[in-house]
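tool_log.txt
---
The assistant was asked to compare two proteins side by side. It first ran the structure predictor on the initial sequence, then on the second. Raw inputs and outputs are pasted verbatim so the downstream comparison step can read them without reformatting.
(1)
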Amino acid sequence: MSEAASHAPSVGEPLDRIDGRLKVTGGAKYAVEFPLANMTHAVLITSAIANGRVKQIDSAAAEKAAGVFTVITPKNAPRLTGSAPTMRVPTLLQDDVVHYNGQPIGVIVADTLEHAMGALDLIRVQYTEERPVLDMDSAPKNPPESVHPLGGERSTRRGDVEHGLAEAAVRVDHTYTTPLENHNPMELQNTIAAWEGDQVTLYDSTQGIFNVRSSIARAFGIPPTNVRVVSHFTGGGFGSKGGPWSHQPLAAMAAKQVGRPVKLVLTRRQMFGPVGGRPRTVQRVTLGAAKDGTLTAIRHHSTSSTSTLENWVEPALSQTKMLYACPNLETVYDLVRINVGSPTFQRAPGESTGTFALESAMDELAYELGMDPVELRLRNYADNDPESGHPWSSKSLRECYAQAGEKFGWSKRNPKPRSMRDGNVLIGWGMASATYPARTQAAGTTARMLPDGRVWIRAGTQEIGCGTYTIMTQIAADALGLSPDRVRFELGDTLMPETPASVGSVTAASTGSAVHKAATALKKKLDELAAGGTYESVFARNGGQPVEVTINSRPGPEQQQYSMHSFGAVFTEVHVDADLGTIRIPRIVTSHGVGRVLNPKTARSQMIGGVVWGVGMALLEATEIDPHSGRYVNADLAEYHVPVNADIGMIDVNFVDEHDAHVNPIGVKGCGEIGITGVAASIANAVYHATGKRVRDLPIRLDKLL
């Protein structure tokens, strides 16, 4: 069994993506590319009002149109025999109530997409309309007892905030707002549903195949084992595909009704409303500090918008409770229901919006104190989790400040606003802290060695563009002592062992730990069977059959003994035209401590993507709602602005070498979410340094600087 020593470790090496060639040559098969016989095509009928009821849908002409199989509406939709799915939008044509503009109110199924779209033009809908609630600022807040961020408590308190503010030498008290935003992954939401008896298969673009399986099973009142979900590649999700939405059960409903497979692809406009987005937040932050910068009190209140369908809360206060040492703290959530589509998780949900407010306020406090922003943060460095009192499993934030600050040249900064310029260009330097929790969840994996010496690893996870195929191959190869080309990693099928959804930076930590344990267990089993011989002798004695192990990995007691987070620092330079107010970002330097970096190439790509998202959040992105009709006004990529190549300057990504023996068996924290946190605040702080104008309402557009 000496082969293990003959291969250098691949974990930590910048291995090229295993699936890279498939993607660039068109060989990667996405959900709607599975060719099923007798395929039909569905399109959604969506509401044109934001509040009321569907009085009548005249579908007679559409039903007679060429190629149309059926038109399903609330009047004729099959009654679902199961429980209402615990999804965010139980809008499955079971009633005629309209909650937002763009809500699915019907489905057309035809033999071609063109025939389905043609029939859609023939649909006529009458409504009983009610005045929608669209202004979050004037709408009543939810009862406090109904506000539970991520199922938790509405408010938290430690110490005496009023006393801490009273004894503060310096205070800042400001309100920061972030707008509605939408995910806009390149690949639209889509699914294919096909029934065979009482069993259904969905080929779905999703971040969570087992979430979809559970939702379909509940909706149709069938066992989860009767539902198979397949997703080998997903073209981006960013949270929008993390849970089930209405289009998946509607596709299954349509397929059951026509007795043929149904393909349903949302339009770009339908990506606004029916599949979630980031809610609007209004956050008031009050900080008190002694003259030396020591925080005496933190008060952070966040009010976010939700739909009339559910009480989903943007967890924007999570980082405030643990990022800085402060004896007196108060956080409170409020919620306002308006007639929009249900919000959901969007890249670093909560921490992205929350760090904008908190880190902007910290910058304002630094100016009030006449203190360097980095020095202020170091003065309030938390050596243990201030909320739980637990030690950190690992923390490298000091090193992140030092590494990124040195690379950026922060020591050369003139702290006075409008003091740095190049001709008519105002130059600003800003910084902010970044953080995101490190979570590990239960996951399963099967590892099998074939007689020819190749290994197959199978886990029901998802590839959403982060490099899952690659890093899982590296983990398994190292555990087995093999080269990566001897390992084949397969994913994306609910027939495989169950793993968590690819959300919240849990995949590398959770599925990666399971892969490591399964591969280690397989190697141990092979070693025991070989009893000092060779692998070939094992298979000879095993009748030439593969050797296989299946394990289920679960978090250990360390989860309750340590506080587990990634940390980072973001330094930004902005150039602002003194006359026009246009903002350019020539460079952003980051440093993060994210535990063990499995693959520097894929990890760096994740961080770059997060920073680009932060630029969009700071300067460009906002979902606009018509104040009268509730219609999403900019529901396309022409009007919903996201950064393009010309908007992005140099992004210098750095990692602190961080060993974490407690977080999970492979020491991984994940880096899909943290990259966006702190970026918007860093940019806003740089804009203030350049112009002397503090913009507390995102996005920062030129009209707010003129």
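(2)
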Amino acid sequence: MGPLILRRLVATLPVLFLVSLGVFLLIHLVPGDPVEAMLGESQDEVAKTTLRQELGFDQPLYIQYLSWSGRLLRGDLGRSVRTHAPVLEDVSRRLRPTLELTIFAMCISLGIAFPVGIISATRRNSVFDNVGTAFALFGICMPNFLLALLLIFVFGVRLHWLPISSFVDPLEDPVNGVRSLALPAITLGLALAAVITRTLRSSLLETLTEDYVRTARAKGLVESAVLRSHALKNAMIPVITVLGLQFGTLIGGAVITEYVFALPGVGRLVVDAVFSRDYPLVQGVVLLIACGFIASNLVVDIVYGWLDPRIRYSA
């Protein structure tokens, strides 16, 4: 497993280079001048020129990229041109709400998807299977913003059970914190649960037809033991893949959900930075999001080896 992890880490270096180069070029292609966004169009040209020189925006693009890359190798992501705070400090403040929302949403999705997916697979073509399939189809087709607005209208406006726009840190106030994250976590969790339910059902149906499952049944094992010890573990590999990708996506920030519920997360930070032409902040956040994706994929590779030892030697 050690050489596998080392190879994966080495393979991430060109990925990070391409990500850094791509986001640098794309953000500089966005129309608008960050200096004018900071000072306004009413400022004189002398002040704009001075600030542009201080920030290095008067240099050619390749010089700007090399300068940013050199600071990046020293662990310096730069400073926000809007807040003048270090990018890492801005991201660390916004990362905590996003992580809490991600974990909450993942718990909701797993709590729904596993019972529904297992029952749908073990009772194929039954009423339970039809209901589970309908739920998966509904969750995949329902846009997040529409589901969020429906939840706000029902639980926030009509019933007044849950807050709709305030954020409280669950680590500081567990009760109000969970209440403040309930609606956005349900919004993300239901969509993720639908994907996991469909994936788990398909994978489990295929696994239940394998020879080793029939052999286990022929030995006299009860169905619950066959499912738990033989079928479910082997059916988990596609599910783990989906979980790894979705976890990286949620870490990157559920932009629409964070905007609808006014959560101070990473996704909202990126959009605000793009609108204000905050180049260093956008570049730093996207690079950190890419690192999150890489880390989640590395964890998925490690879990693969635990679920199926053959992968450990063939990787």
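---
observation on (2): The mean pLDDT is 83. The longest helix spans residues 87-122.
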